[in-house]
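Hi L.,

You mentioned the student needs an example of a multi-chain input paired with its predicted structure. This one should do, with 265 residues in total across all chains.
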Amino acid sequence: MTGPDALGLPDGAAPRFESLQTVRDGLRDVGYLADESISGVVYLADRLSKPVLVEGPAGTGKTQLAKSVADLTGSRLIRLQCYEGLDESKALYEWNYRKQLLRIQAGEHGKGELEGPSWKELEEDIFSEDFLLTRPLLEAIRATEPVVLLVDEVDRVELETEALLLEILSEYQVSIPELGTVRAAQLPMVFLTSNNTRELSEALKRRCLYLHIDYPDLDREREIVRANCARPPRCPRRSTGRARSCCSACRPSTPPAPKRRCTSC
Ligand SMILES: Nc1ncnc2c1ncn2[C@@H]1O[C@H](COP(=O)(O)OP(=O)(O)O)[C@@H](O)[C@H]1O
Ligand SMILES: [Mg+2]
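Structure written out for the whole complex:
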């Protein structure tokens, strides 16, 4: 089993939740209605230090679950939005080539009469922290404060990127040839969501706890709408599609013009 000890991470990280009920009540307090299976999986993910793979149709609260867990635990939410073509340089890190080039040029122009920096000095300089662009996965690994990592719509990425994710989620470390190995200081809570547009690899599934969220029944849907109405008004586009049409109480006084893009959320 993978846990902080097995990964060589500093132990002693207290569990985030005392009990299953704490998860359920806490999520309710931040406006998310979790049933038994949702709160159970979140609780176990914390205890077992495992990522959660959340599958289900669009609009059933998969992304919101990760956001709400971040709210509940007072963690920073780091989101990796997946899309076709997402690669290591956008998911993990890349070097800031423009800045590196400028540094090289500045070295050449600035030397004047004097001897400029040697290539070795320059190389050490341009492959240092100052020239590194961190992307969500590396950011989550390097974070020292509590973090929830959301890998959203993972079914959109190609197999190679999925393999990269698997590697990161197994080791919680990243090897940057020029800088060395970066190890996680703490285990973030990780949520991967999938709309099931393609089958994910068995290896990735085995690495995660699995949660399927289906469309709610009518009573639950009413509850979700009420929970969303009880909070300060938010953009109606952010509530579930079916729910929106069934609740006259939460219809805004001035409905947004049809087909107009929402800029507030
Ligand atoms: N269980 C729930 N509790 C509270 N709100 C929910 C719940 N499920 C869905 N919602 C509402 O539906 C909206 C859409 O959910 P979202 O997480 O974006 O769906 P998905 O990621 O599954 O497509 C959320 O912003 C939230 O307002
Ligand atoms: Mg989503």
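You could point out the following to them. The pocket of magnesium ion (ligand 2) is lined by residues 62-63, 152, 193 (CB under 6 Å). The two ends are 39 Å apart (CA to CA).

Best wishes,
N.
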